[in-house]
Amino acid sequence: MDRLKDKVAVITGGVAGIGLGIAECYIAEGANVVLTANHNVEGGKKAVERFGEDRALFVQQDVANENAWERVMDAAVDKFGKVDILVNNAGVGGVGGPIQDTKLEDWNKVIATNLTGNFLGEKYAVKVMVDYNDGKGSIINISSVAGLVGLPMSPAYSASKGGTRLLTHATALQLAQQKLNIRVNSVHPGWIDTNIIPEDQKDAIIQTIPVGHLGEPQDIGEICVYLGSDESKFANGAEFVIDGGQRA
């Protein structure tokens, strides 16, 4: 307990699925959280009611919109005084299919949310960590196993998650060279039991997982606790794969 005591975390897409699992773990470990979502406003209200207004804040946000990032960070500082941790979790799966049938508008939507949104998150997190937290902090980018091995029918998703992986590397090196104590790491979930997975496909998916079951949102939350805490002070520019052994 209290591994994140007195820390303030911004978690995008933090009101359902993996993001909510991360938020639950953060609250349990003593952090205050700023949760964002673009469409699930009701989920945001319920999360704040559950965690308490003294510990949680919800801000509606389109992560691909730069002005929205300014509003989120301003709201975090206004309520909690600083930001210690950013978890870039918001993402979309997009429309699957062969690349020759992929529409540019569908490609752009996935890249805007999954990759440009992460770039903007890093940009504004670094600014607020420098201004309000003595240049200290932890940025956690939620990528995917699809950022390590391409999914043949999801070119945009694979590109966005692979781009997030290398964005993580590049930013970690840049901030270290600037002598800023802001670490940047990526987390690569495998199949996690959320509403994204259709019920009629779960059994077939489980057959591909060596440990024999789906992961839970809290499995990602726990690694994010470690990366947000001071315990991970020497972890930087690293990739953490949580997939039940699929990439082993």
UniProtKB/TrEMBL annotation:
Family matches, as Gene3D superfamilies: NAD(P)-binding Rossmann-like Domain
Record SUPFAM superfamilies: NAD(P)-binding Rossmann-fold domains
Single GO BP term: bile acid metabolic process
GO terms, molecular function: oxidoreductase activity, acting on the CH-OH group of donors, NAD or NADP as acceptor
Domain of life from the UniProt record: Bacteria
Family: Belongs to the short-chain dehydrogenases/reductases (SDR) family.
Stated name of the protein: 3-alpha-(Or 20-beta)-hydroxysteroid dehydrogenase
Keywords (A to Z) from UniProt: Oxidoreductase
Provenance organism: Lentilactobacillus senioris DSM 24302 = JCM 17472
Upper taxonomic lineage: Bacteria, Bacillati, Bacillota, Bacilli, Lactobacillales
